């Protein structure tokens, strides 16, 4: 009963949290216009082009992951690594941060690799991603300082007016997002505390973490990393050209919104739903896009990208099962 409640809590709370933010963000929104734009005004060729980058970002991540496994004496098929990554992103739609566990579980099942060592390599990947996000944020802030200053002022976080901060609904949305991140960190720390009780598990995870230093071709590893984040950005930026009201936005504007969205998805909601919409819409308005058009953009782009993640997850799950079943026959 306790396990059931815990699983229910992990699923329901992120959904409610993300749903509450979505309801607030779209509280006065006319949803009838979304269908009109989606079927009659959107350029689907640009959207499909952007989704290609989304697929390749996962493929490059799978290839890079395989590199970190070689120092552990593990040589899984590249296709298995890629399909496991497909599954992980789909799993995150159900329970935030479940993806890291699911992809390790999938590869452990089909390639007989230690789950805990796999988990260690994923921890290393996340640390590298964190550094990449930090670098991108630095570039965006330095090149678009005025926009970020305006964003903080518009969202009620202007340090010149403390009273306005606490009176702003935007402030509370940001506050709830931060609380969500703190809760996530709390559970991660608890998980690490549990692992520390089993010395062998900790050693296996640590072995996976330090596998990076023994990667055979570090230049290729860095190249994959650049390709992953290039594809992430291009998937988002290419979506601008799908709509007349965003087609004239500059690449630097895209970088600012990409940064805001990347930070927002750290909040434990399914695929960042809610916080991502809030961040992208708020920043898009600063570049002269109307609130209605910004809401349409966020809703359509996030929805289609999430649908792609679901399709890739189904494909990865079926392909892993079929290919490895034939291999074992």
In total, the number of domains comes to 1
Average pLDDT confidence is 80
How many distinct beta strands?
0
Oligomer state equals: single chain
Structural class by sheet pairing and helices? mainly alpha
Instruction: State the end-to-end CA separation.
Output: 40 Å
Structure description:
This protein is an all-alpha fold and 329 residues long. The protein has one domain. The protein is built from 14 helices and no strands. Helix 4 runs antiparallel to helix 5 and helix 4 packs across helix 14. The two termini are 40 Å apart.
Task: Give a concise summary.
The protein is mainly alpha-helical and 329 residues long. The chain has helices spanning 2-25, 32-41, 44-69, 78-94, 98-111, 115-143, 145-154, 162-167, 169-195, 199-209, 218-238, 251-264, 275-286, 291-328.
List the helices and strands and how they pair.
Elements: H1 2-25, H2 32-41, H3 44-69, H4 78-94, H5 98-111, H6 115-143, H7 145-154, H8 162-167, H9 169-195, H10 199-209, H11 218-238, H12 251-264, H13 275-286, H14 291-328
What attributes does this structure have?
329 residues, mainly alpha
């Amino acid at each position: 009963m306790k396990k059931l409640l815990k699983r229910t809590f992990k699923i329901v709370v992120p959904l409610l949290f993300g749903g509450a933010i979505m309801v607030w963000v779209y509280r006065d929104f006319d949803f009838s216009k979304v269908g009109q734009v989606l079927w009659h005004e959107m350029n689907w060729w640009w959207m499909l082009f952007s989704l290609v980058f989304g697929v390749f970002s996962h493929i490059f991540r799978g290839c890079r992951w395989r590199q970190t496994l070689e120092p552990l004496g593990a040589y899984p098929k590249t296709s298995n690594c890629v399909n496991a990554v497909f599954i992980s992103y789909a799993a995150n739609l159900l329970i935030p941060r479940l993806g890291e566990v699911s992809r390790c579980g999938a590869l452990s099942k089909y390639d007989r690799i230690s789950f805990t060592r796999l988990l260690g390599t994923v921890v290393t990947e996340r640390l590298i991603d964190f550094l990449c996000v930090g670098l991108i944020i630095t570039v965006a802030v330095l090149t678009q300082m005025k926009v970020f200053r305006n964003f903080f002022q518009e969202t009620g976080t202007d340090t010149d007016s403390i009273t306005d901060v606490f009176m702003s609904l935007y402030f509370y949305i940001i506050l709830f997002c931060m609380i969500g991140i703190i809760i996530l960190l709390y559970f991660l720390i608890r998980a690490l505390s549990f692992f520390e009780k089993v010395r062998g598990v900790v050693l296996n995870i640590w072995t996976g973490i330090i596998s990076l230093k023994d990667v055979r071709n570090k230049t290729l590893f860095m190249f994959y990393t650049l390709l992953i984040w290039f594809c992430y950005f291009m998937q988002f930026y290419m979506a601008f050209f799908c709509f007349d009201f965003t087609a004239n936005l500059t690449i630097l504007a895209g970088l600012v919104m990409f940064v805001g969205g990347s930070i927002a998805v750290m909040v434990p909601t399914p695929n960042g739903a809610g916080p991502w919409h809030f961040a992208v819409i708020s920043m898009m308005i600063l570049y002269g896009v109307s609130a209605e058009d910004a809401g349409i953009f966020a809703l359509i782009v996030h929805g289609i990208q999430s649908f792609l993640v679901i399709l890739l997850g189904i494909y990865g799950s079926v392909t892993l099962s079929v290919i490895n079943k034939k291999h074992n026959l």
